[in-house]
UniProtKB/TrEMBL annotation:
The protein, known as: Leucyl aminopeptidase family protein
Keywords attached to this entry: Aminopeptidase, Hydrolase, Manganese, Protease
SUPFAM superfamilies: Macro domain-like, Zn-dependent exopeptidases
Sample GO molecular function, one term: aminopeptidase activity
Record has Protease as a keyword: yes
Listed Pfam families: Peptidase_M17, Peptidase_M17_N_1
Domain Cytosol aminopeptidase: 308-315
Protein family (similarity comment): Belongs to the peptidase M17 family.
CDD domains, per database record: Peptidase_M17
Species of the source: [Roseibacterium] beibuensis
Length: 461
């Protein structure tokens, strides 16, 4: 599937983007019959509203698309771009794209609306073909859209076809495309490599647990991305109820998102040394599954009391983060579908993140606004450290009481990042629960466009 603009075509139908406050002024520039047509059909410039103006041949002479007001655009992103993608079959061009972030959002919204997940069933294609609008870096937007499509495809694919083996194959395919290198440590070799938590969480599955590592680039700052790759999560012996298990194919959403971000970086030929670490496992149930009450020793020597086998994501991330920290990068980022507490706190549309680095947080927040990829900073709240210390071991993987679950999970992960000084953790949902403009129900990238936009500033700080 190609999420790309079409080549310019002579005779393409012009699109005029109209804000409500400029609607009458725009209509006054049209022939009387066309203006009357638009008024008769109630066109006001509302966000995502469209009105095709008939020409003498029957082909539209132009299409009006509503930009909406600032408050409307703040409530619903990508609506204008999605409206363009939903136009009838034909070749279109935008006469004048708004400056700045709004124009970028409209163009990207069109591209993201081209996405279809067709692995198991053919979907109706988008028939409106849009030439690259003036005023945007079309090639950059196409690279971002392709990365988003990769993330969506990975999350949408069920665990039967996206277990640890398939996830490793997807990483290798991405690496081949961009000349990166991949190594993987499987099964009992994880114990030889001192990655015991990854092994323990995944050993009950028929597919071997593994750590997948991809490296790319040999100049510039070093960036390490760690993504949770729990390809399916039954909850282990603390078995989830059916309703809670139904979406667990998306529990590798952290891995899918760091792969999407890696694709943006590599396709843009950014000057950095990139390292991607993905602990890929299935949290299954069998006679050798790890148990509540077990005490495990992580790569860095810390002991962890298991009070819930359904809090497994932080365990596999712990080993990967400890490995990453042994060669401290300039920036370390982890992404994971880690806690329901994060979803409860900010809902499915916002990517909450944790960092002690105010410069990173400021740059990321600004970038998130400019690329319509909302994030929200949550605190590494030091007084809650005691909640993850059970007494019998160094750490507790599932503190009792249910308070501040996202924060305590983030604090748990931070224990494995020393001596790294610049670390950020994203506790994402990676799923669009209901259709929205440019975002069909299903897997979705969260925070990665904001990170990509912020990286140049962050790495210069």
């Amino acid at each position: 599937m190609s999420l790309a603009f079409s080549a310019p075509v002579d005779g393409a139908i012009p699109i005029r983007l109209v804000a409500p406050e400029d609607c009458e002024e725009t209509l006054a520039t049209l022939p009387d019959a066309a203006a009357s047509w638009a008024r008769h059909h109630g066109f006001t410039g509302a966000l995502g509203q469209t009105c095709a103006l008939p020409g003498e041949s029957g082909k539209p002479m132009a299409v009006l698309v509503g930009r909406g007001g600032p408050s409307d655009r703040a409530r619903q992103r990508f609506a204008a771009g999605a409206a363009i993608a939903a136009l009838p079959e034909g070749d279109y061009r935008i006469e004048s794209l708004p400056d700045g972030t709004e124009g970028q959002e409209i163009a990207l919204g069109y591209l993201l609306s081209l996405y279809r997940f067709e692995k198991y069933r053919a979907q109706s294609p988008t028939l409106a073909r849009l030439s690259p609008p003036d005023g945007v870096d079309a090639a950059r937007l196409e690279r971002i859209a392709a990365a988003e499509a990769l993330t969506r495809d990975l999350v949408n694919t069920p665990a039967e076809d996206m277990g640890p083996n398939a996830l490793e194959a997807a990483v290798r395919a991405l690496a081949t495309e961009f000349g990166a290198e991949v190594t993987a440590t499987h099964g009992d070799s994880l114990l030889d490599a001192n990655l015991p938590l990854i092994h323990t969480v995944g050993r009950a599955s028929d597919e071997e647990p593994r750590l997948i590592e991809m490296t790319w680039g040999d100049t510039g700052p070093s960036v390490t991305l760690v993504g949770k790759g729990v390809c399916f999560d039954t909850g282990g012996l603390n078995l989830k109820l059916g309703a809670s298990m139904g979406l667990m194919k998306k529990d590798m959403g952290g891995a899918a998102n760091v792969m999407g971000l890696a694709r943006m970086i590599m396709s843009g030929a950014e000057k950095m040394r990139l390292r991607v670490l993905i602990p890929a496992v299935e949290n299954a149930v069998s006679g050798n599954a790890f148990r509540p009450g077990d005490i495990l020793t992580a790569r860095n020597g810390m002991t962890v009391e298991i009070n819930n086998t359904d809090a497994e994501g932080r365990l596999v991330l712990a080993d990967a983060l400890a490995l990453a920290a042994e060669t401290p990068p300039d920036l370390l980022i982890s992404m994971a579908t880690l806690t329901g507490a994060a979803r409860v706190a900010v809902g499915p549309d916002i990517a909450p993140f944790f960092t002690d680095d105010d410069g990173f947080a400021t740059a990321l927040t600004s970038a998130a606004h400019s690329v319509a990829d909302p994030v929200w900073r949550l605190p590494f709240h030091a007084p809650y450290e005691a909640m993850i210390e059970p007494g019998i071991a160094d750490l507790d993987n599932a503190p009792k009481g249910g308070m501040a679950g996202s924060i305590t999970a983030a604090l748990f992960l931070r224990r494995f990042t020393a001596p790294v000084t610049r670390y950020a953790h994203f506790d994402i949902y990676a799923w669009q629960p209901s259709p929205a403009p440019a975002r069909p129900k299903g897997g979705v990238g969260q925070g990665i466009r904001a990170i990509y936009e912020a990286l140049p500033e962050v790495l210069q700080q």
